[in-house]
Amino acid sequence: MIISDLKRVKPGYYELSIEAKKYLVTEDSVLKYRLFKGYEISQKQLEECLVEDDFSKIKNKAFVYSLKYLKNGYETIRYLEDRGIPYIEAKKAVEEIKKEGKLNEQALANGIAAGLARSSNGPYMIRFKLKNRHFDSNVVEEALSSLVEEDILWGKEKLFKKADARYKSLSKIEKDCKMKELLYRHGYESL
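Predicted structure:
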């Protein structure tokens, strides 16, 4: 079989024409299998290329989703499964992008924890939210230990100022009770 045409259809993707059949392949496959116009390719090579290319597309979809929406491995696998990709292939794709260093769950958890701290969430609430997103326990604990004290204090101060304005009409005792309750609800230990 001879490749009759190869043209770029969108960034990273090429349309490959072989004997009046068209295939959409990734740039990686074009480079790996040295696909170019006039190149002769066997049926076995073509099938191997297409199987590998399908996996490459799944891997790319996983990478783009995890990067664009800041999702961890678990959430990315669920996303791929919702798109009709079998669990085994989705898990393999996520493991590949982790191995390539494109998905670092620890760095992601650290960033999310810092953002939550600046958004007036205390350590207990941050722990709860990270575990709710299915991060491993040791990743969660490492993220909590990496938090900068200034971020926690800044978020706490922000919450305190907002609550102070809200409860200014209350008596001192009522105000203190409401403040403590609010801080506990947001995951802080105390005033």
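Summary: The longest strand covers residues 3-10.
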